[in-house]
Amino acid sequence: MSIGDDLQSGRLANVDTALWVRESTIAAGAAAGTRAIDIAPWAGVACRIYPDRGLDIGQAWYRGQPLAWVSQVGEAPPLKTLHGTAWSDAFGGGLMTTCGLRNVGMPSEGHGLHGTYSHLPAHDVEVSRRVDSAEWVARISGTIWDRDSPEFALDRTIELHAERGLLEVEDTITNHGDVPGLAPMLYHFNFGYPLWAPPAQLEIPVVSTTARDPASEVALGNWRRPPPVEAAPERVLEHDVGTLDYGWARIVNNEIGVVLRLSWDRSTLPRLNQWLDPNPNMAVLGIEPANCSTRGRAADRERGILPILEPGESRTTRVVVEAYPTAA
After folding, report:
1. Could you tell me the pLDDT band of residue 308, with boundaries at 50, 70 and 90?
2. Which of 65, 66, 172, 257 is deepest in the core (most CB within 10 A)?
3. How far is residue 33's CA from residue 299's CA, in Å, rounded to a whole number?
4. Which residue range forms the structural domain that includes residue 67?
5. HSE on the CB side for 71, CA within 13 Å?
6. For the whole model, what pTM was predicted?
């Protein structure tokens, strides 16, 4: 029976039992005073969302197993200035950190590492629950205005399902200005222990792979498995997944009994980077669908591949996280 059936029958008195959603203000720690939205579904993906960090997603769990990598920074408030590589000082990891909207990757043309998006507040935040085809769904939405270019707005919607491990993110970015504007964007999905630990295996339908730099070439032959924890440079690879309409990556860990599948619409996110950092207290895997490179806007400008939005133009991007048991 579904949750809806159980509510109607009287077996379930309150939908909070199956899909608990709460808005709050963090009371202690570095992020004290910032907003949080916590979602705990019956059999789905539980997570914490940060309205003051662009509705990005922090820690997440599926059936009690952590899915996301969380850095030593942990929960942190947004930074007011983001020159150079300051972005890293407040990078807590989490399931999803959004990079953009004016720069992605290395500091470039006066814009800092990975842009400002994850340090922008969401406005007009709405939290609701509804029944969709006899299934309860939590919906969180809000609008994020780009402080570097106030005419750019991103409308984000996140939906989580109560009875299955499904989390969907849909973003629509619009240029409300009178001139064309640059709009690079990257979704920084972060996975760590215990999901990304032996005997985990990463599956991606790869056609070819390119290393970002010589230090990354060591990962060309063994990117599918967690590397040994060791003091070593980070590795960044770009994967070509051919002509798929939807790209996908899947992490399978039979020891904890969880599969995580990430998919994205390649019509607006045609590129895919993989980040591996084997250092102690890191041991992280990043899967990063994007519409640009990670070399910064000057490098993409030189190659003629900068994403641009014309006046009045909108672009919609969609990413989906699915978690399920390995036996499923």
Report:
1. very high
2. 66
3. 38
4. 3-325
5. 18
6. 0.95
Instruction: With CA atoms as reference, report the closest residue to 159 among 322, 324, 268, 327.
Output: 322
Which two tokens mark 26?
A: 């963090």
The answer to whether the Cα torsion of 137, 257, 192, 115 is positive or negative is negative
**Residue pLDDT, tens place only, 80-110:** 999 999 999 999 999 999 999 999 999 999 9
Neighbours of 130 (CB within 10 A): 10
Structure tokens at 1: 């029976």
Res 237 pLDDT > 60: yes
Rounded to an integer, what distance in angstroms lies between the CA atom of residue 39 and that of residue 58? 11
Sequence letter at residue 316: T
Domain count, the chain: 1
Q: Which one, of 70, 62, 66, lies nearest residue 50 by Cα?
A: 70
What CATH number did the domain enclosing 134 receive?
2.70.98.10
Q: What is the mean pLDDT of residues 23-51?
A: 97
Output the 3-class SS for the chain.
CCHHHHHHHCCCCCHHHCEEEEEEECCCCCCCCCEEEEEEECCCEEEEEEHHHCCEEEEEEECCEECCCECCCCCCCCCCCCCCCHHHHHCCECCEEEEECCCCECCECCECCCCCHHHCCEEEEEEEEEEECCEEEEEEEEEEECCCCCCEEEEEEEEEECCCEEEEEEEEEEECCCCCEECCEEEEEEECCCCCCCCCEEECCCCEEEECCHHHHHHCCCCCCCCCCCCCCCEEEEEECCCCCEEEEEEEECCCCEEEEEEEECCCCCEEEEEEECCCCCCEEEEEEECCCCECHHHHHHHCCCCEECCCCEEEEEEEEEEEECCC
